Amino acid sequence: MTAKFFLLAAVAGIAAPAAAHNAWLLPSTTVLSDTVQSVTVDMGASTAPFEPNHQPLPAENVKVWAPDGSMGKVENASRGRYRSTFDVKIDKPGTWRIGMENNGIGGTFKVNGEPWMVGRRRGPAPAPAPAPGAAPGAPPAGQGMMPPPGAPAGAPGAGGPGAGGSGAGGPAGAPSGRPQIDPSHIVATVDEIPAGATDLALTETVGRNEFFVTAGEPSDALLKPTGKGLEFVPVTLPTDLVSNEPGQFRFLVDGKPAAGLEVEVIPGGRRYKERDQTQKLKTDAQGLLTVNWPGAGFYWLNASLTDEKPSNPKAAKRRMSYTATLEVLAP
Amino acid sequence: MKKSLILAAGVIAAPTAASAGTITVTIPRIAVSEYHVPYLAAWIEPVGGGAARTLAVWYDVDKVGNEPGTKWLADLRTWWRKGGRSLKLPANGVSGATRAPGAHRIPIPANIKPGAYTLHVEAAREDGGRELVSQPLTIPAANGKASGKSELSAIVISAR
Description:
The structure holds two protein chains of two kinds.
Chain A: H1 2-15, E1 22-27, E2 31-32, E3 37-46, E4 55-56, E5 63-65, E6 75-79, E7 84-90, E8 94-111, E9 114-118, E10 186-187, E11 198-215, E12 230-234, E13 247-253, E14 256-257, E15 262-267, E16 279-282, E17 288-291, E18 297-307, E19 317-328
Chain B: H1 2-11, E1 19-27, E2 39-46, E3 53-58, H2 77-82, E4 95-96, E5 102-109, E6 115-124, E7 130-139, E8 144-147, E9 154-158
Parallel strand pairs in B: 3-4
Antiparallel strand pairs in B: 1-5, 1-9, 2-3, 2-6, 6-7, 8-9
């Protein structure tokens, strides 16, 4: 029980915004007709996608992949109470990918029977180590998305759906009643695990949360699979979606079709809809997902998958997640 | 109506190449305090599938700077997706300035292969709406007629 809790806490500490709170990116547009414009983007974490009512996310963690393979820039980043914003100059023709990647390992182990963990340290760091998480943009374990201090356990992955847990957005440090590991028993990375550690229960987390922008004609240079982890391979171009035509996307795990993968598709604007139009869909035997859109608008698509093929031999499991914001236009 | 047709026909320079017919698009007069003439695109798509061919696109050709006239071309969103984005603008004999309310002739180029097509006309207006009207078109052109409801009025296909 405690071991499980610690594992969850550690994994969540690495990657999750908050329990049942989903990370989202909301661009001003995804289709541009020239290369002299910018997109402006909101990002945050909240229960319903695109509703800024919980936590901002650090724009410093956003990467911009330009169609020609170069890296673009995040500009004018600012952090509000509930959401961050930033701009990206879309100055090259083709299809861009903009978003966050996270990649880390968290979990627990024992040294001389004492519980230790790999992950984000809660509370003050023991001297002389620098306080992880104190400086934005310098997460301790190379993760893309750091939760706010005190983010509770439960939702690993880049904006993966919450897997349980309660007490969202508590203050820094562990609230009373939460089991706490001695801060001196927390290491930031796997490499710092002391020799002689036993009972390793580590999970690798790999996630991506992104959206696509096309200026002029679309290009597929950035849409080719790499063969690593959980990947989203558009069949319908993600900036070509129209409400009266189904969108089709292939999911791969390590380059092979992710058959039977559950994918959640949630439209924005929940407050203005009589019914929650969340769709829980599954990929077919070829890993192909077909989405029929209930209407035009922005959609938040998420899939996650856990297997036992981590790239780091010290980890036992690999938890992968993929999130995309998709804009669907009226015909 | 007939008079305006003739007027419009007179105003627009006759194409030098022979045409396979004419499409007459009528932009309605809309009584609003802030009226901007619409962006408009007309294109054809082969019925059996295939590349779209743009016959006309009217936009703010001369506007340059931070917000050039091309910025809003994607608002003709169906045209943009079906073929507009692959068209290099300005395109000779295809692109032109926006047109005022009234009837405007678009010649059907003589080099279009005979066959069954769908004609699409899409209009989008600043501070206004957007409308897409589609109708069958055969080449060589036979007479036909369609009509929009808001941003477009009559769309007439004639054999000459």
